[in-house]
Amino acid sequence: MLTSITEGILCCLTGKAASLVLPLESSEPSNGFEFVEVKPGRVLRVRHIVPERQPVVTEDQISVHCKRKITVYRNGQLVIENLGDVLHSEILQCQDGDLEPCSTVEVELADYKELASSPEPHPMPPRVPPHAGDQKPAPPPRRRRRKPKRTVLIDSKRAISSCKGTQSDVALFFVHGVGGSLDIWGSQLDFFSRLGYEVIAPDLAGHGASKAPPIAAAYTFYALAEDLRAIFKRYARKRNILIGHSYGVSFCTFLAHEYPDLVHKVVMINGGGPTALEPSLCSIFQLPSCVLHCLSPCLAWSFLKAGFARQGAKEKQLLKQGNAFNVAPFVLRAMMSGQYWPEGDEVYHAELTVPILLVHGMCDKFVPMDEDQRMAEILLFAFLKVIEEGSHMVMMECPDTVNTLLHEFFLWEPDMSKTESIKCDTETKATTNDIVQTLRVNKTVDK
Question: How far is CA 164 from CA 265, 322, 383, in A?
C-alpha cells in the first residue's frame, strides 16, 4: 500500500505514467503462446492450441428460417415481429429444442422491469349515461396510426449444427473484459483443448502480456475491435464460436454482426443489456492515473469483493492466477473512458441471427439480472442460464458448471423432426385466419 502511494506521488511529480505499461514476460512462451502484430507496433499475446484432429466429416446442417421485422417508433418504443422459425425456450436446458410454428410473434420491449404491452391498445368504449334510453352509444374515437421512425427487415437462412471437438473446421475464441487477461480462461482452455477443440484466446492491448501503447486513443472500443478483427481473420475456421465475458461480450457481438457466415454460435457471460456503450463522466476511473495508482490496492480489493461470491483464500488465489485487474492505471482509465459504441443499441442486437447462450452469475454485483433478461428478450435465438453460486467471474468460480454448460451448447442443434407437421399446421391457419394474431413471448429463466 505504501509503495503504491509513493509511486503515485512520483508519477504526479514527474508527469509520467506508472511503469506497468510494458508487456509482461510470458512464463510459458512455448506452451501455445504467440505474439501477433495486429498493426505496426501493436502486439498482442495470443494463446493458440491446435490439438491433433481428424479430417472434417461433412454432416447435415439444419437450416432455420430467420425472419423478423424490427420497428422503432418515435417515442422510443421497440416492436419486434418474429415471422420465421422461433426456437422453444426448452433449450435453456441445452437439450434438443423444437421449432415453433411459423407465425407472427410481436414483442413489445419498452422497459426492463415492466411486462410488454400491446403497441396499439384498443380504446375502451365510453360509458353510456343512464338517461340515454334507446340511443346507441357513441363510437369510440379513432386512434391515429403511428408512423415508425425506423424499420428493419431481416430475412435469411441460417445453418445450425452440432460443433464437436473432433471436427477441424471448428474454432473457439475467448475474449476477456476490462482488467482481465487470457489467463482467466485457464480452466476453459484446458478443458476444451483436451476435448479436441482448437482454442484461441488473446490478451487485449495493455492487458496480460500484450503491448501497452502509451496513448489513450489506443484503448477505444473501435481500436480494440479492430485488433480482435485481425485476430479473428487470422485464426478463423469455417464454424467459429465466440465466448465473451463482461466487456468482451461487446466485441463478440461486433464480430458476430460483421461476419454472420463465419460466426456459428456465441456465448455471453455476464455481458449486460443490449444498450449502446457510453462512458460514465462521474466514474472513479476519470481520476488522474497517478491517483488511480495510489488507489490500486483499494480497487483490487473492491474488485475481489464485487467480482466473486466469496472472498476467501481460494478466490484471492484465483484472482492472482488469472492475472485479473493487474493492469496499469493509465490503461484502466483509458479503457473505461474509451467505452463509446453508439451503434450497439437494441436494434443492432436484434439483427443478430446467430444462436446465443447467456450465462449469468446470480451474485454478480456488476451486471444486474434484469440486463441479461433484457438481452434474452431482444435476441432472436437466446437461451439464458443462471448459475446461483456464481458471480461476475463465474467461469473461475464454477469452472466445471460453466464448462459443462458451454459444451452442451456447442453440441446442441435444433430438432427438425416436427418440421413437416409444423408447416402443414401453418398453411391451414393461414387460410382460415385473415387477421394476424399477436402472441406474447414470456421467456423464463432457468435457475
Answer: 13, 27, 20
CA-angle at 360, arms to 355 and 365, nearest 5°: 145
Cell of 58: 461433412
Contacts 24+ apart (CB under 8 A), 72-76: 72/148, 72/149, 72/150, 72/151, 72/347, 73/119, 73/146, 73/147, 73/148, 73/149, 74/146, 74/147, 74/148, 74/149, 76/110
| Catalytic positions | 246, 364, 392
Short-list 116, 120, 118, 119, CA closest to 442: 116
Beta partners for residue 39, in sequence order:
42
> For residue range 229-256, what is the model confidence (pLDDT) as tens digits?
999 999 999 999 999 999 999 999 999 9
The total of other beta-carbon atoms located within 10 Å of residue 437's CB is 10
Nearest CA among 179, 175, 386 for reference residue 263: 175
Residue the block writes with cell 502486439: 43
Helices (H), 175-295: 186-194, 221-235, 248-258, 289-294
Residue written as grid cell 382460415:
432
What SS3 state is found at 116?
coil
- Residue 245: strand pairing partners: 269
C-alpha cell at 229: 478483427
Residue 304 Cα distances to 142, 316, 382, 397, angstroms: 58, 7, 30, 12
Cα–Cα distance measured from residue 287 to residue 27, given in angstroms and rounded to the nearest whole number = 33
117-146: pLDDT as tens digits:
333 444 444 555 555 555 666 666 665 567
d(Cα 368, Cα 113) in Å, to the nearest integer?
12
Q: What is the pLDDT of residues 306-316, one digit of tens each?
A: 788 887 777 77
